[in-house]
Amino acid sequence: MNRSNVHLLDLPDEILLIILKKLNNIDVLYSLLDVNNGRLDILAQENTFTNILKFVSIDDNPLLDRFSNYILPRIHHNVKCFILDPILMERTLLAIDYPNLTELKIFHFHEGTVLNYFTDKSSLRPIFQEQITNLILVNNDQDGMISSLKTYTTNVYSHILIFFKNLKNLSIIQPSVLTYYPGLSLCDLPSTTFSSSILTHLYINVKTFDDCVYLLDGRLRKLTTLYVNVYAIDKSSGIVQNTN
């Protein structure tokens, strides 16, 4: 065989998929869908490239326009998870219905995200409340910049559990090992604060060890998996009534 005559499309589908999986799936979809090649078009719509879509730190309007107007309507039944910046949530989530979307990961999350999007007036409310069962937040708020952890706990953390009515998995993580977001603080707050009857998995930072124990006092009745980072392990106050 004359090697100079061997082209990419001469390779079998199995080899092409191995090659394409090495690339960013957003690039694969943008480059291969609707290129007048039915074989590449079919390969680009594989679940590998369409189940999880990541739009983070993207300011390429032509790319976003193409996805919103053409690509997302074609693959919307395959999408199960979006990874997004808050500023792109409306543009992507409202482009088309996603019947199988259940997971959302939000980068650059901050208190303003709650005020702007996690409200009854938000156009995204039906998606958040009816579809999302797994929520991951990369929290960019800084621990030292918050005046009241109890207010933050009520307005942000507790509000999330109330607003996302079908939430079963909640992970709140920090953007790097060198930054710390405001820890959950439950001491002196009502037992109904940060409570859920359906949450099963929780990953969160807490202010003190008492706050960790409060999480196990029955307010999270279905909880089976708990990961916590404790900012201060002081002597316990002994006031936590933990019977679960």
TrEMBL record:
Cite the F-box domain residue spans from the record: 5-52
By what name is this protein known? F-box domain-containing protein
Species per Swiss-Prot/TrEMBL record:
Rotaria magnacalcarata
